[in-house]
Structure formats: structure tokens, C-alpha cells
Design a protein that fits this description.
By secondary structure, this protein is of the alpha+beta class. The chain has 2 domains: 189 residues, no CATH class; 183 residues, no CATH class. It contains 14 helices and 10 strands. Strands 1, 2, 3, 4, 5, 6, 7, 8, 9 and 10 form a 10-stranded mixed sheet that branches. Strand 6 and strand 7 form a beta hairpin. Helix 10 runs parallel beside helix 13. The two termini are 34 Å apart.
Length: 415
């Protein structure tokens, strides 16, 4: 009870001092507020960016490997002169992998036919991202349908004139209409819409299906050369459930080397890309961003901490007479020490709380303006309170110690 009473009285003295010197309190808060706002703001921006990028990467599938000409790579020297001479994946490669891969649940072949204009009667939409795929594409890529269905096996094999449209394309061609069953013109050919992708919105890697037009590969073969390098052909392989992605990758490397008849001394002339490559690259990038943001924020907090230390020295000087009276009435050194420490910590916590409120306010405004959800991690909020308390202790310990060691007679006579 005595300890609680001492803490309560120390809080009362601290609050009284802060209320009596409002301008000084406000000026002391600025540095801490800016520092905490910088740290939490940078961490929130980085977490938001990472969250959006990770959502984009997740669409690629955690157990899916992409056989391509060009490898995915972050940083370092990119040997493009070596990769450009590699052959692109072919239908023969696809068929052989499909026949031999024992660790694969599904294998699909994918080509990107570029941005095209899609028409329906008098309506047209430019910039549609036309892609052609084999049947198992729906197993190797994560997407949802808003209406209709995906290609049947028979439609894929026969190259039926059907298509699945992205939400934005369907909405642009047929506003306020059911797109399923309508006939549109793609690359000069009439195709029937059998499905519409669920709206996803823009993502950080450009993998949104909103502007996609998906065609069966065997239909596209009648219009374009699906093995031409300009259409960026690639093979995607999804491993069986529970099969480690490294085992799938190891088997595919052996298969591709065998299919392309590469001798043991020759390098791979293909790339096996997977989402973990992107995740590892993102981790490295965000470590740098977090470190930079933390360094900037700590510098701002230290500046604020020096400001609070100066204010506390002034406060001790102004209240020397009161300290002498308190000590003459029996106040112990630890009581004097505690009230100044609490005052310094309160200043830092108030500054941190204001900085946090500003971050939440900005996050709310960004959400309203751009519909982008800002991530404010609870762990970072806890970090804010720990930092604020620590800076308060560091800033106030020397002034508080000096105040607690004052001689009561000299302190009373100081005024």
C-alpha cells in the first residue's frame, strides 16, 4: 500500500507539473511524437507493402514450380547474355514432363498473347491481357470464378471457341449484364464467354486476373504460334499434396536435363522458378527498409530525448525550493527520484501515443482515399510503448538523481 501511495503521489506531482507548463510540455512532446510516428509509420508502410506483395506471391502457389527461360533473381549480377541464348519451353517439353513427372499433381503450358482489343457488338475494351493455357492451368494457378465455369476437358482438347474473362473486361464490354453465354471477338475470332473471374483489384506484381482473357491453348494454336518466344511460353508444375517443393524441383531438373539431352558437364539451359525465390528476395529487401526506418526513427527519438532531458533539468531548477520543503517534511530520496522519472516517462508516453494516433489517422485517410488497407502491427505498438518508456528513463534519470541528492537546507534557501 505504501508503494502504491508513493507512486500515486508521484503521478500527481508529475501531472501537476505538466499542466502548469503547457507550452514547455507541448514543445517537449514534439521530438518524441515525430520519432515514434516515423518508426511506426515506416514499419507500417513496409508491412503494408510486404503484405500486398506476399498476397501477390501467394497466387503463384507455394508448391508450384515454373519452367521458364529466364530465372527470377534479386540483386547481384544477372547474366542475361547467358540466359538469352536458352531455348524457350516447348510443347514437347510440356508433354514429356506431363508423362514422366511422378511428383506432380498437375502440369500446364501457358503463353501470353499480349494486350489485345476485345469487342462485343459496338463495345470494345483495349489492353485485355490474352493468355492461352492447357487444361490443368486451373490446378496450378490460384483463382476464383464469379460466374460461369472453367473449360471442360473436352473443350481444352478440341480447342473450342470459349473464353473466361476477367471482371474488368466483362464489366467494360457488358456493363450491368450477365456476360456468360455472350459471344465476343478476340484476335479476330468469335468466342463464347463461359466464365468470369472474381474481381481481385490491382496487386503489386501485376498478377490480377481482372483484365485477363483466358483461352484454351488448342484454340489459340489456330491463331498464333504458341511456341514462339515472343509469347513467353512457360510450363507450370504443381507438386502433389505433402510433397516438398525441393523434391519436385529436383525431379524436374533431372527430367528437363534428360528431355533436352544435356550432358553432366553442361549447365542447365532452363530456369526452375518458385515463389520462395521471390519471398527470400522480399525478406532481404524489407530487412534493409526496416533497418533504415528504425535508424531514422531512433535518431528522431534521441533528439526528442535530449530535449526532454533539458526540460527536466529546467524543471529541477525551478522546483528546487519545493524539493527542499518536501525533503524537510520527510520525503525520501527515492520519492523525489520517482516523481521526476515518472514525469519524464509520462512525457515520452504521451508523445508516443500522439505519434501512434497520427499514424492511425493517416492510415484511415489512406484507406478512404485509395482503398488500401494499412497494416499497423500490434507488435510495433508494443515496441512504441517500450521505446517511449526507455527514452523517458534515460532522459530523466540524471535530472531525477540530481534532484533526489539535493541538500534540503540549500534547496529551501535557493529561492
Amino acid at each position: 500500500m505504501i508503494v502504491l501511495r508513493l507512486i500515486s503521489e508521484s503521478f500527481n506531482f508529475a501531472f501537476s507539473s505538466l499542466r502548469q507548463n503547457k507550452l514547455r510540455t507541448f514543445l517537449s512532446l514534439i521530438g518524441i511524437t515525430i520519432g515514434i510516428m516515423t518508426i511506426i509509420g515506416v514499419f507500417s508502410a513496409v508491412d503494408t507493402l510486404r503484405n500486398n506483395l506476399q498476397n501477390s506471391v501467394d497466387k503463384l502457389g507455394s508448391n508450384t514450380i515454373y519452367i521458364q527461360k529466364w530465372p527470377w533473381q534479386f540483386g547481384g549480377d544477372y547474366a542475361w547474355w547467358k540466359y538469352m541464348n536458352r531455348p524457350t519451353p516447348t510443347l514437347r517439353d510440356f508433354q514429356k514432363v506431363q508423362e514422366r513427372a511422378t511428383s506432380a499433381e498437375a502440369v500446364s503450358y501457358f503463353v501470353y498473347a499480349g494486350n489485345r482489343t476485345i469487342t462485343y457488338k459496338s463495345n470494345s475494351v483495349e489492353g485485355a491481357q490474352v493468355s492461352a493455357v492447357t487444361h490443368d492451368y486451373y490446378k496450378t494457378w490460384n483463382f476464383e470464378l464469379e460466374a460461369g465455369r472453367y473449360f471442360s476437358d473436352a473443350e481444352s482438347r478440341t480447342g473450342a471457341a470459349v473464353a473466361v474473362l476477367g471482371h474488368s473486361i466483362a464489366d467494360g464490354l457488358l456493363p450491368n449484364q450477365d456476360a456468360v453465354g455472350k459471344v465476343v471477338k478476340v484476335m479476330g475470332r468469335r468466342v463464347t464467354i463461359i466464365g468470369v473471374f472474381k474481381e481481385e483489384g490491382e496487386d503489386m506484381l501485376g498478377t490480377s486476373a481482372d483484365k485477363t482473357v483466358l483461352l484454351p491453348l488448342n484454340f489459340a494454336r489456330n491463331v498464333i504460334n504458341v511456341q514462339d518466344e515472343q509469347y513467353d511460353p512457360q510450363i507450370s508444375v504443381k507438386g502433389k499434396p505433402g510433397m516438398p517443393v525441393d523434391e519436385v524441383e529436383s525431379e524436374l531438373r533431372g527430367l528437363m536435363r534428360s528431355i533436352r539431352r544435356l550432358s553432366p558437364t553442361k549447365e542447365d539451359n532452363f530456369a526452375l522458378n518458385k515463389s520462395t525465390i521471390l519471398t527470400a528476395g522480399l525478406d532481404d529487401m524489407f530487412k534493409v527498409l526496416n533497418t533504415a526506418g528504425f535508424a531514422i526513427g531512433i535518431f528522431s527519438i534521441l533528439v526528442g530525448g535530449f530535449g526532454i532531458a533539458n526540460i527536466m533539468f529546467v524543471s529541477v531548477k525551478e522546483r528546487t525550493n519545493i524539493i527542499g520543503i518536501q525533503k524537510s517534511l520527510g520525503a525520501k530520496n527515492y520519492f523525489i527520484l520517482l516523481q521526476f522519472l515518472i514525469e519524464a516517462i509520462l512525457l515520452c508516453l504521451m508523445g508516443g501515443a500522439i505519434g501512434l494516433m497520427i499514424v492511425y489517422g493517416l492510415a484511415f485517410i489512406v484507406k478512404l482515399v485509395s482503398d488500401l488497407a494499412i497494416v499497423v502491427d500490434a507488435g510495433k505498438v508494443v515496441l512504441m510503448f517500450i521505446l517511449s518508456t526507455s527514452i523517458g528513463l534515460i532522459s530523466g534519470i540524471i535530472p531525477a538523481f540530481m534532484a533526489s541528492r539535493l541538500d534540503p537546507v540549500e534547496a529551501i534557501r535557493s529561492k
